[in-house]
Recover the amino acids of this structure.
């Protein structure tokens, strides 16, 4: 909900300062979107006709086809692997779960540049391809739509795996037993019972995957595949045509919001409820033959999604270390990445708390409206957000143009939803009676907050901080557009080295990003016992 009625004083005055602070945060969070929409609507009909005749149809086709193929790959990898680990007990099952989660630590642009190198004729995969199929056959071209889709699927199928696996772990044995009694074979039980029960989880995972495809810049830029994000960046950085970039951004925003509306509509029609006393499905012991087939499939997925990329990064990082390429400049890039991530995560944590706290206290349409408005930044692709922040800064705050504060501002808005949602989930578990007990003992609002509320929700706040830190650490397009001159980060160095075809030199930066993002998997382990 982005309506300005959310900020009406008549609604705010009844709830005091907390409501005013929440309204202010929601308003700031939606500012970049408002500036992009305003800039896009200012285009003349001739400019829109020019964009439509030259750019928009091709970009729409490329983006939609890419999203469709990525969805097919991701659903195949995610559903099959989730079904295996949820329904079968086999040797190395816990290790398999970790291997299927760890691809989330590798950014799409790292996948793209690693596989670009490995598929060269003298690369690891290119040499293997030629030795198998002969000298006259060239390795696959990653710049095709199928190649780009495969790379994006490797980076995103874990979202579907996570959600579908959680759904399967919560399903009950009663329905499956009833289906077998009716004479259904295992395949029919899966398609007629399990698949239907998994539809909400599949829809949610698919929404995350498609939104990532629509907003991806790193992989498509390195593989030179024309989508909206790459075209928006080219308009801004190459042609300096902010109006055309705003027009393309406006279309991309409409595409993203349309998909979200359709996804929410169908998910509401796919809700299923089961008895809380029903038996949980027990995993079956896999036979030796089944274990061989399981590890062949899971091994194939994890080989391409984690083992090969990380092995390549470790090998060339060691080679770069021996040649002295990991020098003071490299550590400066690492420090810059850590600095921006630390500042943005800390600010996002503080700014998101009033929004989450107000929603947990009031549970009204107004509080949910603020929550949703503050979460809009995550639906905006990096180049679109950068354009909105850039136009806002130039119009209202030119003093911070070209400064690190503009970059931090964009990162806070981009990943504020992570901090809001994580803290909101933690605050929902806060019993009102505990807060009231603190007041009965004479604690004022600030002391009650410090001594009662914050200690209870600190684990959720820690999760929120780490999630924002990790995503800021990997962010590429907004950093490219808004960073101060000479202020390079690890993603920037990977992008520069790849642009200059010095891809092996990007291995240490990629490995450092993976190491820096592994705590996210640890947090998942803490919040959900892998069983």
């Amino acid at each position: 909900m982005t309506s300005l009625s959310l900020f009406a004083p008549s609604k705010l005055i009844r709830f005091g300062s907390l409501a005013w602070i929440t309204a202010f945060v929601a308003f700031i969070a939606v500012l970049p979107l408002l500036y992009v929409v305003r800039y896009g609507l200012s285009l003349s009909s001739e400019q829109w006709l020019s964009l439509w005749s030259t750019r928009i149809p091709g970009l729409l086709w490329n983006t939609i086809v890419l999203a469709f193929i990525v969805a097919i790959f991701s659903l195949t990898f995610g559903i099959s692997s989730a079904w295996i680990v949820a329904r079968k007990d086999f040797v190395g099952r816990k290790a398999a779960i970790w291997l299927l989660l760890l691809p989330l630590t590798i950014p799409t642009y790292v996948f793209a540049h690693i596989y670009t190198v490995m598929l060269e004729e003298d690369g690891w995969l290119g040499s293997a391809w030629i030795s198998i199929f002969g000298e006259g056959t060239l390795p696959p071209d990653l710049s095709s739509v199928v190649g780009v889709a495969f790379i994006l699927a490797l980076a995103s199928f874990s979202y579907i795996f996570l959600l579908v696996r959680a759904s399967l772990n919560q399903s009950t044995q009663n329905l499956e037993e009833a289906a077998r009694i009716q004479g259904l074979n295992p395949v029919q039980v899966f398609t007629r019972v399990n698949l239907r029960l998994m539809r909400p989880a599949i829809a949610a995972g698919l929404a995350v995957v498609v939104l990532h495809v629509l907003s991806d810049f790193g992989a498509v830029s390195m593989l030179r595949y024309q989508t909206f994000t790459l075209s928006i960046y080219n308009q801004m950085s190459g042609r300096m045509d902010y109006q055309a970039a705003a027009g393309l951004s406006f279309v991309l925003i409409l595409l993203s919001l349309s998909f979200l509306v359709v996804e929410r509509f169908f998910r509401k029609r796919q809700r299923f409820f089961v008895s809380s006393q029903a038996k949980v499905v027990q995993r079956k012991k896999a036979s030796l033959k089944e274990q061989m087939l399981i590890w062949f499939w899971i091994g194939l997925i994890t080989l391409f999604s984690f083992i090969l990329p990380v092995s390549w990064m470790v090998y060339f990082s060691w080679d770069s270390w021996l040649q002295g390429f990991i020098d003071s400049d490299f550590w400066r890039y690492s420090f810059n990445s850590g600095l921006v991530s630390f500042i943005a995560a800390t600010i996002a944590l503080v700014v998101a708390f009033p929004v989450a706290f107000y929603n947990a206290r009031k549970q009204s349409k107004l509080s949910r409206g603020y929550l949703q408005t503050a979460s809009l930044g995550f639906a905006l692709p990096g180049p679109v957000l950068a354009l909105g922040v850039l136009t806002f800064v130039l119009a209202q705050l030119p003093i911070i143009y070209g400064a690190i504060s503009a970059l931090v501002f964009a990162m806070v808005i981009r990943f504020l939803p992570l901090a809001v949602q994580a803290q909101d989930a933690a605050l929902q578990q806060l019993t009102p009676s505990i807060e009231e007990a603190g007041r009965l003992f004479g604690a004022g609002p600030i002391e009650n907050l410090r001594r009662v509320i914050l200690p209870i929700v600190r684990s959720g706040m820690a999760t929120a901080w780490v999630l924002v830190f990790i995503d800021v650490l990997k962010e590429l397009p907004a950093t490219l557009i808004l960073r101060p001159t000479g202020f390079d980060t690890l993603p920037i160095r990977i992008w520069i080295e790849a642009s200059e075809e010095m891809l092996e030199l990007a291995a240490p930066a990629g490995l450092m990003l993976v190491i820096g993002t592994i705590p996210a998997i640890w947090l998942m382990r803490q919040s959900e016992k892998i069983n």
Observations:
- The chain is about 75% helix and 0% strand.
- Strands lie at 88-89, 284-285.
- Confidence is low (pLDDT under 50) at residues 1-15, 271-278.
